[in-house]
Design goal:
Layout: H1 2-19, H2 24-34, H3 39-64, H4 71-97, H5 102-126, H6 138-155, H7 160-171, H8 175-200, H9 208-231, H10 234-259
Helix pairs in contact: 1-2, 1-9, 2-3, 2-10, 3-8, 3-9, 4-6, 4-8, 5-10, 6-8, 7-8
Length: about 260
């Protein structure tokens, strides 16, 4: 069990750091499919793992002076994402309270993630022919960040592919630049979600060993993914991203049928 958690979190964080999707979009549905813990515990542990990876990536970029996050748009996006993280946590709690069956929540999360991933895949394939925007308005940035934070926290995925698509379309970012900005946004949304869980006393029960192993896998994966990101081309990052979307779609289809 411990080895499974480490391998999943390490592999997901490597790919997550390369593509800018945080890794939670892989960790959450994959661990759901194994049925090792209930959906609340997996969502929380996935969020903590993503937070550890993004903390390393964001801090390393700042310290090394290699950060390409434009604060004029990046900071409002992050603020919106932090508020969205709180709202997403509240939304998850509300949906969970509507049914005594935790599987129903898992099915809803899987279905939402399936729709998001399908849309992301289609956009990625067609993005060269889709005109993009270049938003600078602070209010619009906060609103967009709010939406991303809600999706991130509710689905327990950290941010995932939807971050990249939003950054591609609304801010005309390249793949690697979008990846870096996505990790920056994910950091704030997951930090807010974690703080909300602690303050409200809604941290689910799990073995502390699981958290330590998953966070360790997330950090080591983040280090490895950051190194790999510098070595691969934009084109190969896009190919990896598309392949990943297909895998996630298949996992979520499996999870929907599993939870129904």
């Amino acid at each position: 069990m411990i080895l499974l958690f480490f391998v999943v979190c390490f592999g997901a964080s490597v790919v997550g750091a390369i593509c800018g999707i945080g890794g939670g979009v892989i960790i959450k549905p994959l661990l759901d499919s194994f049925g090792v813990l209930d959906v609340s515990a997996i969502s929380f542990l996935s969020g903590c793992t993503v937070l550890s990876m993004t903390t390393y990536s964001v801090a390393r970029s700042k310290i090394s002076g290699e950060s390409h996050v434009e604060q004029r748009t990046g900071f409002p996006l992050a603020i919106g994402a932090a508020v969205g993280g709180l709202l997403g946590k509240w939304l998850f709690t509300c949906v969970k309270s509507l049914s005594s069956d935790p599987n129903r929540v898992g099915a809803i999360q899987a279905a939402c993630l399936l729709v998001v991933t399908l849309g992301t895949l289609l956009y990625t394939i067609k993005k060269e022919s889709i005109p993009t925007k270049n938003i600078k308005n602070i209010g619009a940035c906060i609103f967009i960040g709010l939406f991303l934070g809600i999706m991130s926290s509710f689905l327990g995925i950290g941010g995932g592919p939807i971050n990249l698509i939003v950054l591609f379309y609304f801010f005309s970012m390249t793949t690697k630049l979008a990846a870096e900005n996505s990790l920056y946004i994910i950091f704030f949304s997951q930090l807010a979600s974690l703080m909300a869980s602690i303050v409200t006393g809604s941290v689910p029960k799990f073995k502390l060993t699981y958290l330590v192993v998953m966070v360790l896998g997330g950090i080591i994966g983040g280090v490895s993914g950051r190194f790999c990101n510098k070595k691969i081309s934009e084109k190969n990052v896009d190919k990896l991203f598309i392949a990943l979307m297909i895998v996630i779609i298949l996992i979520n289809i499996y999870n929907i049928f599993k939870y129904i």
